Amino acid sequence: MTSILHLSYRAGPILRLQNPLLSRICPRATPTPSTTGSFLQASRYLRTMAGITIPTTQAAIQISRTGGPEVLEYHTSLPVPTPGPGEVLIKNNLSGVNYIDTYFRTGLYQSPKPEILGREGAGIIVALGSGPNPQGFKVGDRVAWLNTGGYAEYSVAQAEKRVVRIPEGISDEQALSVLLSGITTLSLVKEAYPVQKGDWILVHAAAGGAGFLMTQMLKDIGAKVIGTAGGPEKAELVKSLGADVVIDYKSPEGANWLGKVMEVTGGEGVAAVYDSVGKDTWEDSIKAVKRKGTMVFFGNASGPVPPLNIQLLSAKNIKVLRTSLFGYIATQEEFDYYTNELFNMVKSGKLKTRLHKIYPLEQAAQAHIDLEGRKTTGKLLLRP
């Protein structure tokens, strides 16, 4: 009997399971017409013959309103999600914490409530939805994924363009350190502004999860990097990555970081600025861009930027981009390119990962406090 499980169910007292044997075991369950898969026991748990146990309820972090970290609510009996057509159900070993999660929490980005936060995770596929499976995923595959609902024991994700097998030799921690943040940064230096050898590039928050990776990518290309960071420890970290110039904006001289940028570039400015900070750096970042240069904006860590006076761009013919990750991985080919490139860079040693801390799932609020307090370097993860 096959051990691959195809299921469709709704958590609660009535389960709908794709298994022809179930109607003889649990009359309250309604089998669907296209039934395949292993024997399932209808109780609090659904069991496959492969020995994988899927509960009907799970622990997760949910928000029912917007606000500060206090709105992150730890629940222990939320429904395990159902994999739909073309989806997979993943038992998460780790879930990523990213700044974008705080945007949904605060309401800067709108989303329906209640909501389970989290945009990425890593774990094991425990069930497949119905329909085609062109990627050939199997129950038991170790994968990393991008979707919603990551702060949970179980998550569903669309198999196409959102789920990738983790290669041998790469840990779950490494995979999540370069998934969302890594695809974001690699697409920025490859496509938002295609960096060339010898370019002067300014990277804000260079010790953060994205900046840490981007600085290494830029040096691998051969760019000259100016990295900003807050505090001597973070500045030393950025220096260790090979940045040509490091500016500690918390130091007395760091307050005039724009002046330093113009000084080291001979008054010309940089070919591109990569700015994930937002409100606090936006105006001077535009001033730091050279003639015909590019301003790439991809975050709001200090708050949303004010309305742009477009006349500021005309003096030097500056281009401004506000990027979206999924605009760069709209096809399977693009998703495969970026994930393969990142994993190869990790395996070859070109790209180092840095883990700040793994928090228990129930401490997600503390992870947000630390992240927003700019107390972190590298990646933050949750352990469901």
Helices and strands in order:
Elements: H1 22-25, E1 45-47, E2 53-55, E3 57-63, E4 73-79, E5 87-97, H2 99-106, E6 115-116, E7 120-128, E8 142-146, E9 154-158, E10 163-165, H3 172-177, H4 180-192, E11 200-203, H5 209-221, E12 224-229, H6 232-240, E13 245-248, H7 257-264, E14 270-275, H8 282-288, E15 289-297, E16 319-322, H9 332-348, E17 355-360, H10 364-372, E18 379-383
Parallel strand pairs: 11-12, 11-14, 12-13, 14-15, 15-16, 17-18
Antiparallel strand pairs: 1-2, 3-4, 3-6, 5-7, 5-9, 5-18, 7-8, 8-10
Helix pairs in contact: 4-5
Describe the structure.
The chain is α/β, with parallel strands linked by helices and 384 residues long. It folds into 2 domains: 56-178 and 353-383, Medium-chain alcohol dehydrogenases, catalytic domain (Quinone Oxidoreductase, Chain A, domain 1); 181-326, 3-Layer(aba) Sandwich (Rossmann fold), CATH 3.40.50. 24% of the residues lie in helices and 26% in strands. The protein has helices spanning 22-25, 99-106, 172-177, 180-192, 209-221, 232-240, 257-264, 282-288, 332-348, 364-372, and strands at residues 45-47, 53-55, 57-63, 73-79, 87-97, 115-116, 120-128, 142-146, 154-158, 163-165, 200-203, 224-229, 245-248, 270-275, 289-297, 319-322, 355-360, 379-383. α10 links the parallel β17 and β18 (379-383). It is globular and about 65 Å long. It starts with 21 loop residues before the first helix and ends with a strand. 45% of the residues are buried.
Essential attributes:
26% strand; 2 domains; alpha/beta; 24% helix; Rossmann fold; six-stranded parallel beta sheet
